[in-house]
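Notebook B, p. 112. Complex prediction, attempt 2.
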Amino acid sequence: MSLVLDPAAQDLLFREARTANTFTDEPVTDEQVQAIYDLVKFGPTAFNQSPLRITLVRSAEARERLVQHMAEGNQPKTATAPLVAILSADNEFHEELPELFPHFPQAKDLFFSERPAREGAAGLNAALQAAYFIIGVRAAGLAAGPMTGLDFAGVQKEFLDGDHTPLMVVNIGKPGEDAWFPRSPRLTYDEVVTTV
Amino acid sequence: MSLVLDPAAQDLLFREARTANTFTDEPVTDEQVQAIYDLVKFGPTAFNQSPLRITLVRSAEARERLVQHMAEGNQPKTATAPLVAILSADNEFHEELPELFPHFPQAKDLFFSERPAREGAAGLNAALQAAYFIIGVRAAGLAAGPMTGLDFAGVQKEFLDGDHTPLMVVNIGKPGEDAWFPRSPRLTYDEVVTTV
């Protein structure tokens, strides 16, 4: 009742959208990924630091290498999803800060000269952007299957470098047969929200 | 072109929505927060672990205590926003897992018996939910002002307990005068997305 967002959009993004475990064969195009990115890039991050990086696993050879690093239960869906993306945080995001946050170019040196501070900020803000990305996948009429059951060190070594920390792997496509479990229960408002 | 989501909803949630630094006096009601929660609670988390907790700072006394722990530049907006919420991660979320993920009740003991594993999972998944919450605030026709410029240890000690890690503080309300900077540039698709 209190929401301004159209009910159909609420359904598309949250109520009817589900984490898919199976997918149809319909490909996910670069144009779709670009449209998703061009929408969700506007989601807020601290100092507009935008640390999320996306690796699209398109070749059969790369897909095979990735599957080896997934938990056993995640291997079949990672092997068969139309598109698989590795989401990571760029711990050297501060190099882009003077361009990304022109109102306050000193932020780069004032807050992010030390690597641990950058890693903390990149981890949190890339996670926010990962959520925006999942919402964006749904906005494209596709289902996302985010997964954290994987060998993170292995994925980093195989696909990234020491400056990029993997956050999750996301399967993307049109949901297939028996794509999901029944919806699990959510915590009630009173279990989550307290007032002081 | 490739998106299914209605363009008005794209604008509301991403393109026209901005991080507000000033707000009108119009209150934000518990009914609005409940409507936001009842939408974004469906956003996905690993094992449906749902570790986000929300503390609404409603009393003048609590607001004053919170402002003391904010970075100087964030104090005026934290003092004047219609509603301020502390978002935190519940590191003991695993106690609810058998109820939240009935398909696989062993997950609680198999993956989350150790506190460091819980803290890592809670931090990432609560950050995803913080992003869903920001999107939900916008879905309610309100502006969010997420902030990480604060004394996290101070906020934890003052408002939470040892099992809850604060992630950010979010100002919520209708945007006021001069509510934001001009939109900062975003990284291009090619700066963010690579293909292997």
